[in-house]
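Thread title: Can someone regenerate the structure for this chain?

I was given the following input by a collaborator and told the matching structure tokens would be attached. They weren't. Posting the sequence so someone can regenerate them.
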Amino acid sequence: MSQNRSPNGAWTNWAGDETCTPSRILQPRSVDELADATSSAAAAGQTVRVVGAGHSFSDQVCTDGLLLNLDRLSGLQHVDAEAGLVTVGAGTRLADLNVQLARHGLALPNLGDIDRQSIAGAMSTGTHGTGGKLGNLATQIEALDLVRADGTELRCTQAEPEVLRAARVSLGALGVITSYTLGVVPAFALRAESSSMRLTETLGRLDELVDANDHFEFFLFPHTDTALVKMNNRTEEAVRPPRELAHGIAEFAENGVFEALCRAGRRFPSQIPRLNRTITRLMAPSEYVDQSYRVFASRRSVRFTEMEWAVPRAACAEVLQEILRVIDRERLDVGFPIEVRFVAPDELSHLSPAYGRETAYLAVHMYQGMAWEPYFRAVQDVARAFEGRPHWGKRHLMEADELAARYPAWDRFQAVRSRLDPQGTFTNGHLRRVLGPVGSPGAAPSADGLVQTGSPSRKERKAHADQ
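Best answer:
Regenerated them for you:
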């Protein structure tokens, strides 16, 4: 994890705005090494947190205790194409997993628009793509393995559905996840179409556009009335990826030109509305066919910080219009587009932001080095009024008491948390804010009878070896 570690031993996230100095940063080479380090840290009263690619925009992984990076616990471990199941190491980057699955003629049914994250980081924070009939990525989890604070391994399956539903989106609060069993589908191609559309038309046709496409999303630059709409649909057509030159020009426009305009906006905030209108004039329609994972993911080199809210799909247009009104009323300098995506209801994860309702996600961003808090606070106030739930991997300013009221299965998650981590080994300052302490109201007392479906403890193994 050298890409996130400075010479003085500090760790910094991808955005460069969250940092911590753990007492130790470890890349375990095996589950046994991980379990030994975890149990030793727990015995010493240290916090244990896990980091992947560092793509979370919050202080979610920060610790002064043990920071584990699972890059060495990665790759496909088992493939059952007939059953549509694969087992993958938790440290595997999504980009690498997509390539490995493609070699077996397989694919994940949906992905987000960034593939730099580790599979554990993406799953544990409720990361999602878009598709009105598709859930977030964690709905693809059939089973997982985790290591508890005492070093014991637990296999989470449908045999204990409450544990599995808590572990799918866990924020790392239950233990160290070491592998996943995921549902996969045969590899498929997507026809990718993008074009400009008036915002009023986009919002007026919103249900039609979401329901008529496998994957629909749109981007809106504040201070304009132009949306970039993207429609990706399964197809049996032959793959015809964008021409290399055209693709290179498009990537340069999306990253190089956009970076230059962001820098100009940071230096001259009053010019942001004009710069945004310039960007919308540069947006050109495109259409091509490629393998799904190549269509879903985009290269993002421009650094930013982000907040994202899951709101009822039926309220999407109203929420977006209110955010735009607040931007204008408060004279906020917003050079990044608002991204809008859609997912199906989800009750497979207790802490899924899409729990129990058709959901629209609205993501807002601020370019690096610019003040994000006034904008994000204003957006949060709007989202709150519409029963919004924050994306767990992005910035937000809500705390446990308020969040608890927004999640119907909150107490059920807390009950599992108390069972699996009664001493709070995996709880740092961030989790105390957003989840509360272990054993907070609604959490059940620790259960001694928890079924251990994985390996025996380290002490038991050592005792057996010494016999």
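Residues 342 and 360 are 4 Å apart (CA to CA).
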